[in-house]
Amino acid sequence: MTPLQFGLVSSAAVVLALVFALWPQIRAWLPGVRSERRPLPGSLSVAIALLVPLAALGLYLQVGTTEPSESNDPRVQQLRTQMVGIAGELERNPDQPELWQRLGLIYKDLRHYGSAEHALRRSLYLNPASAFVRVELAESIHRRSEMQEMPVEARRLLKEAIELDPEQIKALWLLGMDNFLVGEYENALARWEQMLPLVPEDSSMHRAVQAETRRARRLLDRQP
Q: Is the pLDDT of residue 21 over 50?
């Protein structure tokens, strides 16, 4: 099934599901039909909002296809199998932030950053104290934007993550890189110097941070 075909089929499935769920309200508006117009119960509205996207996800996982280069990749097939299991669990109980996080990370690994963003937002809504989810969501937003500079929301999420966990290495690295890109070399140095003690000295990451730190210092020295 091509992406266009999947889009048409999934859109039709979502529309049909919504019509079925909202039929009492739709019927009340039909001419010649007398019916009391009752709003949907809150719990049913929430269920529809959650289950319809999950149904679309299940449809995609069952009949959709990835890019030709991915179709025979065992790792991709394994990730898709995991997604099917996670979708089934979330359909039975959607209030599981860990599963939404795992789903978001799988989407992110497959470079489906829009879907990753939606899943990670749901995880953060259910677990607002998570620094880790904030960092992954910020990176998904950044990559989806395809911008070199960090979007405002992504930058805010990274700062919140560091406030929650000052040793959040990935947040420090990403914020430092963003500061460096916009010419805020002093801020970049502060982020990376905070990060250096947290990284093993014999690691490639430690050497990379040291190299970026030296580069930032040279550029800072050249400023008036």
A: yes
Cβ-based neighbours of 223, under 8 Å, separated by 6 or more: 185
- Containing domain of residue 96, as a range? 67-165
pLDDT of residue 50: 52
pLDDT tens readout for residues 152-179: 999 999 999 999 999 999 999 999 999 9
Decide if pLDDT at 131 tops 60.
yes
Domain total of the chain: 3
CA distances from 25 to 3, 15, 178 (A): 33, 15, 49
**CATH code: domain of residue 115:** 1.25.40.10
Q: Which residue has the tokens 């502060």?
A: 190
**Same domain as 110, residue 20:** no
What pLDDT score was predicted for residue 63? 37
User: What pLDDT is attached to residue 68?
Assistant: 45
Task: Provide the CA 128 distance to its chain's centre, in angstroms.
Answer: 14
Q: What percent of the chain has pLDDT over 90?
A: 57
CA distance 196 to 194: 6
